[in-house]
Specification:
By secondary structure, the chain is an alpha/beta fold. The protein is 31% helix and 23% strand. Strands 5-4-1-6-8-7-9 form a 7-stranded mixed sheet, with helices on both faces. The radius of gyration is 16 Å and the shape is globular.
Length: 204
């Protein structure tokens, strides 16, 4: 299945006060660890959408098998990065996987599992996402049939409204893929989050 993986790595990191994507995580920047999970997965292509401190984020991703997409409107919210990635995705993509640049404990194995679950999902399924403890997390994967709806998203919510609607339909068209490891969903909004990450990675 042809899946375009889109890494959202353009944000301002307002809550943290410094660019969380460039913080250390096991000897490499946070964003590079997140990108590796996509590059080493079953995705057909990987696009990294950059904006805030774009040159530094590009440098953190140097040498990886991915394409950089610049989003000049990144300050207007996550939806602008989502649309920027979609605009550059392969025309023949059967689905779009959106991942966060500040999710450094995500692994290629879990990305591959999400893609595999979507590929073998029941007819009518239009999206898949990882869930832990009944809560939906990232990354999420949406079918190409939703491309037009994704292109109309505005603000800083990403695809949340679309996913909520699919989840609530009968039968639901959002496939829940159980994830036993809560650490997969660790993202970095506070200094405490980063301290927890460093502890998980042995302080490296």
């Amino acid at each position: 299945m042809r899946i375009s993986a889109i890494l959202l790595a353009a944000g301002l990191s307002r809550r943290l006060g410094r660019n969380k994507l460039l913080l250390p995580a096991g000897g490499v920047p946070v964003v590079r660890r997140a990108a590796l999970a996509l590059v080493e997965s079953r995705a057909s292509e990987v696009l990294a959408v950059v904006g805030h401190q774009a040159d530094d984020v590009r440098a953190a991703l140097a040498g990886l098998k991915l394409r950089i997409v610049h989003n000049p409107g990144y300050a207007q919210g996550q939806s602008t990065s989502l649309r920027a990635g979609l605009a550059q995705a392969a025309p023949g993509a059967e689905g779009f996987l959106f991942a966060l640049g500040d999710q450094p404990l995500l692994t290629a194995a879990w990305v591959a599992r999400l893609i595999g679950a979507f590929a073998s999902a029941p007819p009518g399924t239009q999206a898949a996402a990882l869930y832990h403890g009944g809560q939906r997390g990232n990354p999420v994967l949406l079918a190409a049939s939703l491309r037009g709806e994704l292109d109309r998203i505005e603000g800083d919510e990403g695809a949340r409204q679309i996913l909520r609607r699919l989840e609530q339909e009968t039968p639901p068209r959002l496939l829940a893929v159980p994830a036993e490891e809560e650490d997969l969903f660790l993202d970095l909004d506070t200094e405490a989050d980063h301290a927890r990450l460093m502890q998980k990675l042995g302080g490296g």
